[in-house]
Amino acid sequence: MNREMAAVTYIFMFLFVFMASYVIWFLMGDTDKILNNPQNKRQELLAERIQKGSILSDKGKVLAKTETDSKGNEKRVYPYNELFAHVVGRVSHGKTGLEASEGYTMLTTGINPLTGLFNELKGEKNPGNNVVTTLNVKLSQVASESLGSRRGAVVVTEPSTGKILALVSKPSYNPNQLDRNWEGLIRDNDDDSALYNRATQGLYPPGSTFKLYTTLEYMRETRQYEEFRYTCTGSIGKGKEAINCYGHEVHGTIGLKKAFSESCNAAFAQIGVGLNTSGWNSLCNSLYYNKTLPIKELEQKSSRFDIASGEGKGDIMQAAIGQGTVLTTPLQNSFLVSAVLNEGKLMKPYLVDRIEDTYGNVVRQQEPSEVAAPITKKEAKVLKEYMRETVLSGTATALNSSRYKAGGKTGSAQFKEGSTDSHAWFVGYAEKDGRQLVVSIIVEGAGTGSAHAVPIARKIFDAYF
Length: 465
Prior knowledge:
Elements: H1 2-35, H2 42-46, E1 50-51, E2 55-56, E3 62-68, E4 74-77, H3 85-88, H4 97-101, H5 103-106, H6 113-121, E5 126-127, E6 130-133, H7 137-147, E7 152-158, E8 163-170, H8 178-187, H9 198-201, H10 211-221, E9 230-232, E10 235-236, E11 243-244, E12 252-254, H11 256-261, H12 265-273, H13 277-286, H14 313-320, H15 335-341, E13 346-347, E14 352-356, E15 362-365, E16 370-372, H16 377-393, E17 405-414, E18 422-432, E19 435-443, H17 449-452, H18 454-464
Parallel strand pairs: 1-5, 2-6
Antiparallel strand pairs: 2-3, 3-4, 6-14, 7-8, 7-19, 9-12, 10-11, 13-16, 14-15, 17-18, 18-19
Helix pairs in contact: 7-18, 12-14, 15-16
């Protein structure tokens, strides 16, 4: 009898500890996710007595606000029209972006409870909290204007903190005119996919920007990587498996740094064949390939890299130069460069800097946090040196400036079978007096990264520094 009572006691104790642990976990880790879920009906109840707060830029400029007409009807207004449509989001036809992820936050109020009660007794709504983002209006405008009418995306981040300073996707749409244009947007006769956030949802072959990963894995497997030599004749392989350097350029006998800065496809295809596929996969996974990105505010898709040990030689060679089955999003493609600039540490990317009440008092402050340490300081130093060489003497010399130091990797990624059409890529950095900036840029179907993505990076760096 005592044994049975003890068993029942232990079971109930276990259940109590389990439930208590779940409540603590929910309060500390999952509360925001549940409360800010657009399907949470509690937000509709709060909207009856609280006027939804605003979304602000890093300098306090209004990106989204609620306006009330003479009849008391509320309307959400976006002063910058289509510029921040994908990141700030919308509230009609399905909530997206920050409007969705911070909806509950903006429908809570941080004002004095007595003041709030007095307002309710008068029949007035209390002002909701404001979301102050990391977004910089000037850099966003420069990125958008530089991209022009072309399709693509631009991501600008601060590597030391993880702040996202600009996130532009084109084509875009005007959230102020959504009801009027909705049918045309979803019909999408021009195949614009304007509702689609290319920065976090667009999956593209990374092209030669992926040579950063191939270089890093080769360095890890080869102690004497500096002694690498390859004689490029403009191509490698035969028949359908043949890989050509861009424009069939013959690079001659080159080392690893020169192969990187000149973006020699033949050399990297040769390197890829000799790599350990397990280590290669692990490296990519450590930088959020095949994983959900560590950012809650935006809709996203996972980048893809998965090379099996029995993969064919041709497939491995294609993967080594960022073609074949390798796919990445522009945001994820900035991660390795960010880790390099931050001595091997990858900071969590974020869009919300702080929450303020209507009087500007800070309710909650976001602190930078490290999410991974995928590379060593030594590896970061070498990769930064290689990217710098790309600007000094390689495919990105248009970024060479006396006002700041820049580095990066260009890419031209073919995306149609049997076609020479290519997406233009650039991922890279600029720094001056301790300030650093990382960009990831793609221009769909434009051609070479040198000709079409690098000039966008130049305009962004010039504006920032």
